[in-house]
Amino acid sequence: MLSNGALPVPSLCQKFMQVDFSHLSVTTSNCTSTQLTAFLLTGVPGLEDFQIWISIPFTFMYLLAVIGNGLVMAVVAWDRSLHEPMFLLLAMLALNDVLLCTITVPKMLLIFWEGPSLSTFPACLTQMFFVHALFLSESAVLLTMAFDRYVAICAPLHYATLLRGSLIGKVGLALVARSVAVVTPGVLLILRLHFCQSNVILHTYCENMGIARLACNSIAPNSIYGLTAALLTTGLDFVLISLSYWLILRTVFRLPSKQAQTKAFGTCGAHICVILIFYTLAFFSFFTHRFGHHVPKQVLILLANLYLLVPPTMNPIVYGIKTREIRMRVLGLCNQPK
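Predicted structure:
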């Protein structure tokens, strides 16, 4: 039995792997196949001495994301007058944000505080599945919200017909189905791999290519599928969101009132900034993990954490607090006599 949770599989040669947890050194003899039962998540390589300080802003952002999105969900659930498509979508986005950062940040903070942490093979695959599935659903919710704003501004007379409260439940089910359908083949492609070198993942959480690169056999199918799926889902979402906001801005330019234009620009500008941050960080992290071989590893890992944490932190401020109806309800809750 191997010391780090890897069990040898009968083959033409005997395998042996040893991990020194104190120095994270890994030595492996020649082998053909190994079935890992655990992975070692190391955190940010090269910044081990600074991880305790890095954890401070990450902890603050995580608490802000959970509290802010929790308030948005509570207000929408509590006030029945807000059970309309726009606010239900905000609540759906808030729920997705809480799940997205909770699936990664607590484990990441544990690594920052206590050092490298073992994650079992099933737990690692589960985390990978939810990270990618929740990211896809986040992108789809942003697309649905952009369509909602497009109809409200560019075709207001058809808003009540096109977007009904009952439609949001169907949209939610469609988002879940799309995420499961796209991410499941990626998990199955990981299961076909054989691991015979190392179980050390230089990262704070389990993600697709981070696991795949530990394999001995070809990961070309994993890379090709991941790239294709990303372009056909989040890539297409970004194109459609950009088109929606372009049409919205074109309509805003035609408004006769300067005051109305300024108000619309203020709202749309904040939305566009959040969307650009979300997709810029995500696409940069995605493509540099595959093609950016000269980008420092610590930069890749920090960006991979930021694109899962920055949008959940900003969304309740931009989409929630800046929305007048939600802002008034939150202030009302805070000012209630004790």
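Summary: The longest strand covers residues 17-20.
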